[in-house]
Amino acid sequence: MSGAGGAAAGESEYATMGATENAAENVTENATVGALPPATAHDGLYVVDAHHHLWDLSVRDQDWITGPALAPLRRTFTERDLSAETAAAGVTATVLVQTVTVAEETPEMLATARDSDLIAGVVGWTDLTSPETAATLATLRALPGGRHLVGIRHQVQSEPDPAWLLRPDVRRGLTAVADAGLVYDLVILPHQLPAATTAARDLPELTFVLDHAAKPHVASGELEPWATDLRAFAALPNTVGKLSGLHTEADWNGWTVRDLRPYADTLLDAFGPSRLMFGSDWPVCTLAVSYGRTLATAEKLTEALSPRERAAVFGGTAVETYRLGERTARRAGRRSVT
User: Fold this and answer.
1) Sheet with 93-97: strands ordered across
2) Element at 123 (helix H, strand E)
3) Contact predicate 250/259, CB 8 Å
4) Phi and psi dihedrals of 245, rounded to 5?
5) Where residue 165 falls among pLDDT bands split at 50, 70, 90?
6) Rounded-to-integer distance, Cα 291 and Cα 31, Å
């Protein structure tokens, strides 16, 4: 699959979630409900949520939201909805990430970011297999809000070819992303990690950001070969990871921090705090836990880090990777007086 006619995120990004229908608030080591307080204190001057989504069902259907398990997501989620969650959690800036392989979505997200005091960056979509990728990226940059474009993503995990990232036309598109000064977000499954590692090795000028840790099999507790393949990917200096999406790969109703810890520890050990960033994956995270509890879980998983290391995971890495800089600081300043 490639181009605007490809599959939407429901066939791809969230296809490996469990089938439990009810959300869980269970985030403690011992499965004690509600023992973690809401996240309210952080070590840095600002907190960045490096991965969330928005959609308006009156504008475009999200046809991946099917069945009773995903029914809570079948509504519109706006920037105002997100702002209420982030304000309560102490998050000061965010990165909005694409959900569907539809060209019209990216300009809409850029316009939303332009008018937002919260969204500092946008990871959009364009057809990497098109010979016009470079021109399309230039056009996006010239749109209202275009300066917020920080990266590109494609639902690689829905591609039947495990080596899709290594195709010559895709490599040409990835090169255009690098030439535009953007990063490339990877949404893949564990079996696609070797191809992602080869692509990152072959394109050292492009930063590859791994979303959701390549969606390991948390529910079954399976670590290998995911852990070995992840370490090979993270060994490359142009790779970055997101501490995101782990609890939606676990049992939605019964997961604990203890279940997530081996995967989070692998991420921390492989990337190090300076190349790992927190992402909520809101509103998808709400299938398993609230926004505040998602952040509290990430804080629990990183509690052994130093204040400086935690500041990187919860802000610094995202600011550096996505070059958010002044936009993040400005948003933090505005929100601190409102």
Assistant:
1) 48-52, 93-97, 119-124, 149-154, 183-186, 208-210, 239-243, 276-278
2) strand 119-124
3) yes
4) 70, 5
5) very high
6) 19
Q: How far apart are CA 7 and CA 100, in angstroms?
A: 7
Q: Which of 298, 266, 272, 299 is nearest to 285 (CA)?
A: 298
Gap between the Cα atoms of 121 and 148, Å rounded:
5
Q: What sign for the dihedral angle of Cα 186, 192, 197, 202?
A: negative
- Specify the pairing of strand 208-210 against strand 276-278: unpaired
pTM of this structure: 0.86
pLDDT, average across residues 216-237: 97
Query: How many residues belong to the chain?
Result: 338
The answer to whether the Cα torsion of 311, 317, 213, 125 is positive or negative is positive
Token pair belonging to 174: 């990835």
The torsion angles phi and psi of 166, rounded to 5 degrees, stand at: -100, 0
User: Which pLDDT band, with edges at 50, 70 and 90, does 24 fall under?
Assistant: very low
Count CB neighbours of 247 within 10 A.
26
Dihedral sign (CA 219, 223, 225, 230): positive
Q: Residue 39 and residue 301: Cα distance in Å, rounded?
A: 13
pLDDT tens sequence across 275-312: 999 999 999 999 999 999 999 999 999 999 999 999 99
- Confidence band, pLDDT 50/70/90 cuts, at residue 64: confident
